Amino acid sequence: MILRRLTKTSMETTRLSSKGQIILPKAVRDTHHWAPGTDFSVEDTGDGVVLRPIKTGQPTRLDDLVGSLRVKGPARTIEEMDSVIDAELRDRRDRGRY
Fold first, then answer.
1. Do 67 and 82 touch, CB atoms closer than 8 A?
2. d(CA 34, CA 30)
3. CB neighbourhood size of 38 (10 A)
4. pLDDT of 47-89, one tens digit each?
5. Which of 39, 81, 85, 89 could bond 54 through an S-S bridge, CB–CB 3.0 to 4.6 Å?
6. Greatest CA separation for the chain
């Protein structure tokens, strides 16, 4: 099943409406089991966009996550965390991801 999904190459076309709407072809919606009301994130890749369904489920509470990531050594500062995030965003942008 996974191999078939990875090697399946079909191209569907659609058109942007005057309201900025795009209709996903029924075959695509059925393949992915996307029902009306499915929310998507939209990622601009520079030469196009990637739509990814937003997974629904139980919202995560901060209290459930506290202490789940163990770090050896001193706590990181906000500046250190911001620096690492900025570096990753630059790397992704250089690879054409953002």
1. no
2. 6
3. 14
4. 899 999 988 777 777 777 766 677 788 888 999 999 999 999 9
5. 39
6. 55
